[in-house]
Design brief:
By secondary structure, the protein is an all-alpha fold. Helices cover about 65% and strands about 0% of the residues. The protein is globular, with a radius of gyration of 17 Å.
Length: about 280
């Protein structure tokens, strides 16, 4: 599951799902697909929405597990089974990344299973490559492997027209560039990610993009970008939860939410767990 926004010719159901998802209303978006849960594509999309909710809020793990089991049960071919395995890998990665439970081995195994099921030409392959990059960067601590995976994902997203995924590959490649001191390259990547998210109306991902770009800009532009990120963060009720540490102390995180992983310093920024 990735998505690229909506156009006038899109299916009304998908348009409604996108609008809710882009504003962080994952539960409502998933509810629209409940009646179609017997359809493998709809079941997988519903599971993806609820897994994404876990990544952004640190909540809803049981609902995501239930939806994922349904998607796995109704999958009928390798493409569908591969997509479900990719989502299971993302859920395990999210639990590990947010410090809920160490499921790193499960994440690797599930994404490896997805790689065996999805053909190189599969439209789901770029998203799989991206998620394997996340595991390489944030669990295996292998930036070189992560960069190679992000580059494959970026090329695949461009080839398949997955614009939203491009925003994530730009963002994470920029994060690696920033860690290596390549400021101009990082600024370009974060700016491209922000541009895409604003054009798509992906509100839930706009604040992280603004905050990341702020770490590449001089004052007063950096402060302006952080202030705008903080405004959106508050507007969305303190979501994504892991952004709170980067914006602190100006923006408090709600005490009921899972705390984001510790940030070692203000620069480089806390990477978003992502898609």
């Amino acid at each position: 599951m990735s998505g690229s926004g909506t156009t006038a010719g899109d299916d009304p159901l998908q348009t409604a799902v996108w609008r809710l998802r882009s504003r962080g209303c994952w539960t409502d978006a998933a509810a629209l697909l409940t009646a179609h849960a017997a359809d493998p594509a709809a079941a997988l999309e519903r599971a993806g929405l609820l897994v994404e909710r876990c990544l952004f809020t640190g909540e809803g793990w049981a609902d995501a597990e239930d939806a994922l089991r349904t998607a796995e049960a109704v999958a009928g071919d390798d493409e569908e089974r591969g997509g479900a395995a990719c989502e299971r890998g993302r859920l395990a990665y999210a639990a590990t990344r947010l410090g809920v439970r160490d499921r790193a081995d499960e994440a690797r195994a599930a994404l490896g299973r997805a790689a065996a099921l999805l053909t190189p030409a599969s439209p789901g392959r770029p998203l799989l490559d991206f998620r394997r990059g996340l595991v390489a960067e944030h669990i295996a601590d292998s930036p070189q492997a992560a960069r190679a995976a992000y580059q494959r994902a970026h090329a695949g997203a461009a080839a398949h027209g997955d614009t939203l995924l491009l925003s994530f590959t730009w963002h994470h490649q920029a994060g690696l560039a920033l860690r290596e001191g390549e400021l101009a390259q990082a600024r370009h990547g974060f700016a491209e990610s922000l541009r895409i998210r604003e054009e798509l109306g992906y509100l839930i991902g706009t604040a992280p993009a603004l905050a990341a770009l702020a770490d590449c800009e001089p004052e007063p532009e950096a402060s302006r970008l952080r202030a705008e990120a903080g405004r959106l963060f508050r507007l969305l009720g303190g979501v994504p939860v892991w952004l709170g540490a980067q914006l602190a102390p100006a923006v408090p995180v709600r005490s009921s939410q899972v705390q984001s992983p510790p940030v070692q310093s203000a620069t480089p920024p806390q990477p978003e767990p992502a898609a």
